[in-house]
């Protein structure tokens, strides 16, 4: 099975990495962005927080994008304007706009033309909305945008690998970075690439509340969604029908609505989606046969793609074409695969990871213009479960359960490729999921001995903390979501087939609530 997400250590960006980008960045059409934040203006990068000012290497506090004077600047994400400063001064950022996106995130847009800001303090702006024009006010040697991504008052260096010196960036392009702890609404409804929530059983409904899907005792699909403010906080289990289902995953379709996929009788894949006007549609077949595992992702156009392991352990894919609907299944090769997860590489292109013969990890990735690469071994052995996340620098990080139930991880370093596998310790782990804690750092959740829940998290100052218990026993499957307070919430199915949950309570007691039953019976995720 394949589940959720993660974080790690800041990585420096070398001149070689800038050359690797070659001035070309994979772009989504303006207005069709798929990331948590989008590039606010098209142009050439002339500065970032790692390489400094590109011309001389001097220190810099943001990302400079050279563009023609008068070019429109767009908001990188939805938020509330908290500062509009009109200034023709030759010091500082000159005329600027600052937007608060929630969860400690703000963004700054400096050196605008005086009187060009089109927004006011207190105004709520949408992602991609024009907020002003490129100028050269403040401490500036020519027309450009000074752009900052700020978390709790600290300008972030992580996106520097994307805004590498000399890179050509396109307005509306999703910024390839993890955006740890970014507000839930942005991460789910505005991010079709859905990088923060790899495929799994947790979705977010039209009210932006968590929704849990599971397979019931009759092989039918059931759902339960959060209702903040209502007694108990959850609506109760509903029946979405279907039969003989063995695995489910949830995504967001082209209209921004939840879509559920299930492996049903004969290993065929079925799906249904939520229609705001009519409710849930009937189940419809996507065909195929003998599928045993699947993972949902999104292509470069932001449309859903399903990867599924079929007969002989071979990998297959199908995707949604807005003009034609779902295309037929096509083979991506490979053999003896048992578990699959997906992500996006340093260029923002899809990448698939799968456990093959002997428990070795393999991967293939899509290259724009040439298609899928051949499968390549990443080493390791005896792996049984894998999930993927993104470290603090926005690069992929894999977590896999190996021999003896020990947890291992491997991560991508733009300057030298994949590193690992390194042990994170622990024993007897059977399932793994990844989320972010209140500090925005990676939190790995695992089911260990006796079916108890454990977690280990990354501390930027001290590295990985040891495993700590979250309690419970007899758990069989685990998943991670984020509640209406944008705090981490862990869901686990017990030996009695009931669903349990616990959630992060920053600053209170142990930092976690107790384990509470959400009811249900005979539930499973696969």
Description of the molecule:
The protein has 526 residues and is an all-beta fold. Among the domains are: 33-179, Glucose Permease (Domain IIA); 200-286. Strands 1, 2, 3, 5, 6, 7, 8, 10, 11 and 12 form a ten-stranded antiparallel beta sheet that branches. Strands 17, 18, 19, 20 and 21 form a five-stranded antiparallel beta sheet that branches. Strands 22, 23, 24, 25 and 26 form a five-stranded antiparallel beta sheet that branches. The longest helix has 7 residues, at 15-21. It is globular. The protein starts with 14 loop residues before the first helix and ends in a 9-residue tail after the last strand. Mean pLDDT is 86; it is low at 1-34 and 186-197.
């Amino acid at each position: 099975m394949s589940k959720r997400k993660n974080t790690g250590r800041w990585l420096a960006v070398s001149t070689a990495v800038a050359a690797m980008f070659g001035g070309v960045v994979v772009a989504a059409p303006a207005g069709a962005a798929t990331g948590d934040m989008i590039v606010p203006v098209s142009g050439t990068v002339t500065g970032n927080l790692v390489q400094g000012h590109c011309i001389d290497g001097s220190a810099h506090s943001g990302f400079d994008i050279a563009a023609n004077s008068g070019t429109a600047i767009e908001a990188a994400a939805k938020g509330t304007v908290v500062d509009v400063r009109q200034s023709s001064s030759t010091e500082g950022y000159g005329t600027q706009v600052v937007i608060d996106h929630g969860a400690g995130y703000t963004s700054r847009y400096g050196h605008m033309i005086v009187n060009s800001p089109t927004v006011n303090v207190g105004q709520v702006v949408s992602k991609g909305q024009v907020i002003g024009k490129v100028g050269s006010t403040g401490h500036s040697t020519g027309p450009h945008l000074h752009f900052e991504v700020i978390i709790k008052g600290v300008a972030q260096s992580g996106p520097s690998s994307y805004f590498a010196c000399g890179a050509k960036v396109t307005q509306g392009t999703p910024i390839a970075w993890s955006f740890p702890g970014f507000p839930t609404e942005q991460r789910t409804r505005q991010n079709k690439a859905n990088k923060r929530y790899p495929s799994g059983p947790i979705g977010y409904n039209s009210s932006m509340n968590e929704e849990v899907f599971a397979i019931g005792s009759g092989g039918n699909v059931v759902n339960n969604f959060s209702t903040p403010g209502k007694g108990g906080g959850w609506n109760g289990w509903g029946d979405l029908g279907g039969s003989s289902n063995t695995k489910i995953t949830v995504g967001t379709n082209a209209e921004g609505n939840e879509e559920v996929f299930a492996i049903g009788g004969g290993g065929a894949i079925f799906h249904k989606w939520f229609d705001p006007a009519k409710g849930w549609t009937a189940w419809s077949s996507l065909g195929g046969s003998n599928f045993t595992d699947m993972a949902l992702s999104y292509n470069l156009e932001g449309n859903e793609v399903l990867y599924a392991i079929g007969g002989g352990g071979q990998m297959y894919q199908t995707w949604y074409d807005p003009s034609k609907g779902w295309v037929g299944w096509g083979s991506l090769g490979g053999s003896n695969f048992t578990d699959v997860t997906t992500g996006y590489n340093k260029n923002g292109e899809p990448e698939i990871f799968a456990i093959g013969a002997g428990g070795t990890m393999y991967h293939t990735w899509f290259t724009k213009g040439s298609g899928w690469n051949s499968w390549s071994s990443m080493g390791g052995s005896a792996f049984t479960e894998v999930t993927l996340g993104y470290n603090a620098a926005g690069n992929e990080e894999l977590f896999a359960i190996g021999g003896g139930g020990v947890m291992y991880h491997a991560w991508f370093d733009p300057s030298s490729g994949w590193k690992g596998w390194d042990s994170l310790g622990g024993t007897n782990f059977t399932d793994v999921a990844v989320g972010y804690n209140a500090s925005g750092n990676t939190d790995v959740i695992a089911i260990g001995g006796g079916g108890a829940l454990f977690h280990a998290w990354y501390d930027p100052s001290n590295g990985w903390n040891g495993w700590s218990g979250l309690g419970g026993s007899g758990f069989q499957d685990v998943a991670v979501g984020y509640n209406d307070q944008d705090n981490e919430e862990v869901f686990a199915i017990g030996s009695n087939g009931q669903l349990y949950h616990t959630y992060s309570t920053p600053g209170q007691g142990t930092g976690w609530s107790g384990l509470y039953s959400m009811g249900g019976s005979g539930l499973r995720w696969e």
